[in-house]
Amino acid sequence: MSDKKKKDYEVGYGKPPKHSQFKKGQSGNPKGRPRNARGVLASVKRELDSKITVREGGRQVTISKAAAMAKRIVASALQGDPKALFTLLKLDPDLYGRLVSEVEAEEQVPGPEAVDFDILRDYFTATEGGDTEDEAGGDTVGEENHEDA
User: Fold this and answer.
1) What angle do CA 23, 29, 31 make, to 5 degrees?
2) Quick check: 22 pLDDT over 90?
3) For residue 51, what is the enclosing H or E element?
4) pLDDT tens for each residue of 42-62
5) Which of 101, 96, 98, 100 is nearest to 85 (CA)?
6) With b meaning 16 or more CB within 10 Å and e meaning fewer, what string describes 102-125?
7) Which residues neighbour 84 within 8 Å (Cβ) at sequence distance 6 or greater?
8) Which residues contact 73 (CB under 8 A, 6 or more apart)?
9) Helix (H) or strand (E) holding 147
10) CA angle, corner 75, sides to 54 and 81, nearest 5?
11) Between the CA of residue 117 and those of 68, 112, 120, what are the distances in Å?
12) What is the top-level taxon of the source organism (predicted)?
């Protein structure tokens, strides 16, 4: 009977041999993840938190690498480096957001005032009523004077 079950099972893509499959209740990773394996972001954060000694104003100061990077970006931005300035603005979303909104506020064109609507309304009511300059003998825009021909 067991020979018949073995013959019914076809080994192929996505169907490994029965003897190499995990047994019921057995994990595919019995030892689990190693304790110190924390991932790339954790390694970067740990590295940025580590301390270094820098010379600042003639004396040596111990600061984190992240603080040293921040000082370097600010110093470059103050010297006029546009890439450093843009990086600094991107790092502080509140400051960058305020600057963008201020620029957008300056670029907005004010809308028409009530007086403008009154002028347009008077113009259109006058043209509908037949009170145009054409009848008075004046030239209008878009019409050519063909009296020379």
Assistant:
1) 115
2) no
3) strand 51-56
4) 888 999 999 999 998 899 999
5) 96
6) eeeeeeeeeeeeeeeeeeeeeeee
7) 73, 76, 77
8) 84, 87, 88, 91
9) none
10) 140
11) 59, 7, 5
12) Bacteria
